[in-house]
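Observation: inputs received (chain + ribulose-5-phosphate).
Thought: call the complex predictor directly.
Action: predict_structure
Action Input:
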Amino acid sequence: MTDLYASPRLRWPQSISNLEQKQEVAARAAARVKDGQLIGIGSGSNAYLVLWAIGQRARDENLKVAVVCSSYETETAALSLGLQLLQLGSVKPLWGVDGADEVDPHNRLLKGRGGALFKEKILWSTAEQMYLAVDPTKYVERLGQGFPLPIEVHRDGVGLLSDKLESLGARDFELRIAGGKDGPVLTEAGNLLIDAWFDQIPEGLHSTLKMLPGVIETGLFEGYPFQAL
Ligand code: 5RP
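Observation:
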């Protein structure tokens, strides 16, 4: 694991499950890189490992590679790897890579465990082509089996959203609480997150939620084409 750290004092992430499988996927992604490309990098362990593999290829083969990232985690890693970092939303990457928490048989994705869903949707919407980096455990029969639906909400909209969630079919929901600070998690875009559990994610749920004042984004990715790595 020491290879994955920029320095002994900059240890991110702390541990990665299924490391070997994910590194194989990352190597396949890095093999696609060509000199001079601008590449979008999502968030989470798979995206992080892809970034790391790209950084190593760029260094070993003296390739000029620029990246645009959807989280502090991958931005900081990109800088430590010596890659050029561009501002999300200001450029259109030729291709991008991101992970997911769940993938259903219709290629709908559930994302947002890492709190980067809003920025990830900007990345997915601006990249010309997206590649999905997941291990086989992410393929499910129905979204919401193992993960809640994250809903990114401005702090002033939390009360209104909480009042509505039960009638929208949520079995349970909670404000996501931080691990390394007191109080709630702040997303990559500085908002709060409500994690909502659904037995079935009803059709149109994403649009209904987005109509509510204060809701910034949901972790449902429907109609976002990708190629699996
Ligand atoms: C972060 C995300 C991640 O892409 C998702 O959680 C997958 O993470 P990992 O690659 O660690 O399984 O949506 O907001």
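Thought: report the result.
Final Answer: The mean pLDDT is 93. The CA atoms of residues 170 and 198 lie 5 Å apart.
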